[in-house]
Amino acid sequence: MVSETERLVESRRLLEAHARLMELECWQDDVLWQLHGAGAPGTALSAQDEELVRNYFSGVGKLVEALGKELWAVVGSGLALARQNPTPFVSAVRIVEREEALDQAMLEERGGAGGHSRPLPPGRPRCWRERFFQVLEEAVSARFRSVSYLHTRGPGLAGHLSALQHGIMGDLATVRHLLDHCVPPHYNLTRAYLRACHRCLQSHMGQVSGWELESGEIFAVLNWVLHIYNSSDMMGHPDLMVEMESEELGPLISQECLEQLQNKYVHSVRKSVSEWMHKALEVELTDWQRDQEPDTDHEGFYLTSLPTIITQMLEENARVALMVSESLRDQTIQMGLYEMENLLNRFREALVEFGKEHRRDQSTNQNKFYLHYLLASISNCIILKTSTESLQQQLSSRSASRFSRTPPGPLAALDRAVRRACRLVMDQLLLELQPFLQGLLSRSWLAQGDVMVTLKLCGVLERHFELYSRVRPPCRQRLQEECQWLTVVEYVRVLMQKRLVCRNAEERRQLAQRMALDAQHLRDLFQGLVEVEGSVSEVNPMALLPVLADFIRLKDPSMLTLEVSGLVAKYPDISDEHVSVLLDVRGDVSRDVRGTVLDLLEQSTPPLPAGYRPIFSDILVPTPSMPFCLPTAKCA
After folding, report:
1. 548-569 residue pLDDT tens
2. Coiled-coil intervals in this record (predicted)?
3. How far is Cα 76 from Cα 139, in angstroms, rounded to an integer?
4. Is the pLDDT of residue 38 over 70?
5. Cα–Cα distance between 495 and 552 in angstroms, integer?
């Protein structure tokens, strides 16, 4: 019997082999039962007798192992058999069910009533149905055993995940349409196979997540886990949803693992973004040295390639991250804003160095387009500001509140960069105005009565204003306004140097007339150039020059107190030093009148009104040189 059964097992005639095995086991059980005294009280099997029976039936245990080995080989290759010849698989299932029934019957007999329970035979219960599902899961997990990082690096990982998807879905279709009909309904084979696939994938994706992945690979994993796996192309397929809701399976990777993957992705992208920004800034610095004007956009505004590169890179990273999840998009945007802030800080430092280099090379006039590239930098910052605000608007409300400190970062850095560039533009304007300012408000200037100096000064201003029109609003208006302020401040600063002190009423009249004429030239120039946009400053700097001209023109010195009161009312930041210089320039103010005027100033120091922009605060009065004095006792 044993030899015949062995031949049946070897030829995979499993049902016949199992029938012979059941017969052999029945003989073995009967012998043991009889030696136990058929359950009679007070009888027990001796160790010698039990050993004798086991030796006699030793071939039976080996047959069980051999049959089990063949049986699980058939179950493990069930998918392949189902497509070719499912008969061996059906036979295996029938054997499993027979064994399950035998286990159940023997367990019931062991617990029989009346004290006549039979002992369980050796190797029982076999639990082959449970083993059936274990073998099924082992067959599923075999798909992942040979996978390693070396075989799936780079684009290979996306291909591997795609192959997994098609392989698993093909297997599930085979299980649903073929294998499910080869097992009893209570097996719920499709559901069991789904669970097995999910558990194996959980383990495999945990392994994949631990690899040193690049950003593209992490994106492929996240997209597959969060979207493809639960989509209608995979576990969300309508036919599979009938078997089991995807929520029953649970997440493919834990929340902790998901956050780790997202952090790794953002870190990898950040490294790439930082490198690209560094290269873009290097290109920008090279552009500044070109011996030609910056490029212009379709509206005629100066620009370089920097804002386009940065904007496209950050927008593209945010768009790609959103394909995975909103939270990853928010993390990517925050990372981009941090890197933008770092870039702008380096950009501002580069502007400072650009200005220093230009001042060193001023004599050689190497960079003819220095001013043009400063203006292009300002326009670039305005474009980057628009891009930054757009990215911030994309942030979800939860992330915006979570990162409440972040939004001012890049915007504040942008404002610092713009202010530095505008300051450099004004420094360049002052540098170009300086030769003409030196010729103003001196005795020779008054004596010659030549307006060419003023007209040349206006020519410089006009050229600058023309260039400012190549800057995007609102910085264009800011530059225009700053230009007016600088012109007036420098004009008054020259007056404060007391290059001309009037000797008589005629000189006071001529000085006032020339100052009024200069003010008119400047006013006409600015009115023709300035675009009226938005709110106008409460203090118009050009109005100061006619006021000072009237102060000098005043014929009656006794009216100076009233004149100074009006001056303080209009310009509350004017100091007693400024007024004292103006009195000196007049050249006709007595000590008593001077004392009265200065006392009035001390008593009336009104606070600066809201919205008032100080102008005299920017004008320092030169310190009067002390007369040479020998250290005599009397002097001491």
Report:
1. 999 999 888 888 888 888 898 8
2. none
3. 5
4. no
5. 11
